Amino acid sequence: MTITEVLHHATQGGYHIKGADGTDTAYAGANSEYSVWIRTDNDSSFIVPVADTFLDPHFWQALGRGLGWEQAVQTVHAVENGRTTLVTRTGHHWVSSWHHFIDCLVEGKTAADFFENIPCPRDQRGRDRRQA
Asked: Domain range for residue 42?
């Protein structure tokens, strides 16, 4: 998926930004660098860097809802205290995806690199929603 598609799915999953003064806004679209939000009280717009959005846990939760990431996942972490220890925990799929996103950035890749590997959600007939 593209960053534009990812932001669209997150807003469908309930992602929302309020104006600096708490005013309601409506999502107006995005490109690979910025998203645009319109204040509902006066129709003025403001832009938000998508890099800031990707640091927001509410974005990842909403993206998970928008993409149907409802199942829990098992994660394993290596803890180094003189020896390797495996720790397992069950968490939400969005948390695991957020961690993978950060790992992608640490490896020197971009947000676009990460999101291009997330499949587009499918409708009940098994087709891409973009084609439905």
From this structure: 3-115
